[in-house]
Amino acid sequence: MNFDQALKNINRSLSKKQPITFDDVWIKHRLKVSYKFIKENIITELGGIDWDAVVCRLDYKHQKLWYKGVKIKQGIELYNNNAEVEIALSRYREKLYTFLVQINKEDKIICNLICIKLVRVAQKGNLLAKQRLISLLTGLTNQWIDNQKLKNWRGYNDKIEQNIERCIRRYRYSGSFYVYLFRTLEYAGRGLRPLESFSLDDFNPVTEKRRSDNLVYDDDYGGAKLIN
Predict the structure, then answer these.
(1) Which residue of 64, 144, 167, 178 pairs with 149 in a disulfide if CB–CB is 3.0 to 4.6 A?
(2) Distance CA 3, CA 220 (A)
């Protein structure tokens, strides 16, 4: 038994049985030899079975049927464990640049692998994993904005972070998290108007004064207010 044979057995069984959904328990009960091989050989940095590595190599029509209980449920214990984060990143520490620039297709694949590693740790309740991933994905989304792929999102930093958090929470099957996040922002960004950022040191093209010269204190407003 090797990995290719295990994958072939799973694909064949899924095509024959045609379940509406399947998970690790389904494989364990119906494909005991394949399950044993995967359990002993396809493992994550934290010691569990790396089902992402398995499912992403199945036929695409079968990937969509995968359903594993990875959603963060109500009442789950939240915790901070930096060691888990460091272990998850151990194989890819020198590849974190892929969140800022992808030179080739391999960089995109690695970026996606790092995403999924941290997503799974975050979905267990590790807040540090979620924070680290949000930080990395902010750099990635800024790249998409600068490249005009998601130009409508310029200036909506809070909304971007909210959508990243939702994607981390909802991602459940082993498709590309990289693509999932991009498509989510692409669809959610329709109708948004880019917000132009500016500095108070910039000159107003009309008055030829710095924007900071137009700051006044307004008692009703409750603080400094910029006037034209």
Answers:
(1) 144
(2) 69
